[in-house]
Design a protein that fits this description.
It comes from Nonomuraea jiangxiensis. This protein is α/β, with parallel strands linked by helices. It has ten helices and 13 strands. It starts with a strand and ends in a 5-residue tail after the last helix.
Length: 296
């Protein structure tokens, strides 16, 4: 089965700085993928590589089985909504729809006009007069009416208020189900990803830290709390993701496929936000070792 997005040893460098490196991923079709990480982690770079706006420095990337932006047919299969949901402020909503119809061979004009009507937007209204939420909905409509197989969204709701975010994400989910889209969505707001995504990629320091279906990731990550203990004493199958220590107590987030049998541990499940924050905890190793030394 063709992957929605596949990369092997993918890297992008600007001068001497690596914005993305050693990125290997394989995302099956049919998922809503959440891409999360701190500022500067490489999220936008990965999405622009997938959209064909950038060329890799190293490695390779394919989108729907083809090189990004390989030609008009491949471009028609991928929708892209960039950061800040850019629209042309001097054009009306109707102008945007006409432009979309002219530029996209698979354009669904009926769907676009019905969606604008369902949002109670006036087609004669200029985009520059719309609220942030309305501009986001217009940008989403343009991306959906293209009738892509893969829709890429780069921080589309970052600047929206909670109500506008909820309405945008609800519209996205309805369209995903109706049109059987694959979606890759980057966001800082893990609560939004938890609501709609069934697949997760965490990028930190330009590298992939964890990737997989959210249900599987949540089932294999656990928080262990118990008497203070060196991580070297944990079973080999328990990979330590993050650690915190006091004088008497240790708290670990571990990833393991097997049961946790040590009765000294209190084991609790993680939320998706807990899991993401654990993988984003990349303090230097010496700082973690220092936590293990009893404070004097």
């Amino acid at each position: 089965m063709t992957s929605a997005l596949e990369a092997q040893a993918l890297g992008k460098r600007y001068g001497k700085r690596w914005a993305l490196r050693d990125c290997t991923i394989d995302i099956p079709k049919g998922h809503v993928v959440g891409l999360v990480g701190p500022n500067g982690a490489g999220k936008t770079t990965l999405l622009k590589l997938a959209g064909g706006q950038l060329e890799p420095t190293t490695g390779r990337i394919t989108v729907l089985g083809e090189r990004p932006a390989a030609g008009p047919e491949q471009l028609a299969r991928v929708g892209f909504v960039a950061q800040n949901t850019p629209v042309y402020t001097g054009l009306s909503i109707a102008d945007h729809l006409r432009l979309g119809a002219r530029l996209n061979p698979r354009w669904d004009d009926t769907m676009a006009r019905e969606r604008i009507a369902s949002l109670d937007l006036d087609p004669a209204q200029r985009a520059g007069k719309l609220s942030g939420g309305q501009r986001a909905q217009l940008a989403l409509t343009l991306g959906l009416a293209k009738r892509p197989e893969l829709l890429i969204l780069d921080e589309p709701v970052a600047s929206l208020d909670p109500l506008a975010r909820r309405e945008f994400l609800q519209g996205l989910m309805e369209a995903t189900v109706e049109h059987e889209l694959s979606v890759v969505l980057s966001s800082h707001l893990v609560s939004d990803l938890e609501r709609i995504c069934d697949y997760l990629i965490v990028l930190v320091d330009s590298r992939v830290q964890v990737i997989g279906e959210t249900d599987e990731l949540l089932a294999t990550h656990h928080r262990l709390t118990g008497p203070r203990r060196d991580p070297g004493t944990l079973p080999a199958g328990q990979h330590v993701v993050s650690a915190r220590h006091t004088d008497r107590q240790s708290t670990y987030v571990v990833r393991t496929d097997g049961p946790i049998l040590d009765p000294a541990w209190t084991v609790t499940r993680l939320s998706l936000e807990d899991l993401v924050l654990a993988h984003m905890d990349k303090r230097p190793a010496r700082a973690r070792r220092a936590d293990l030394e009893v404070q004097r």
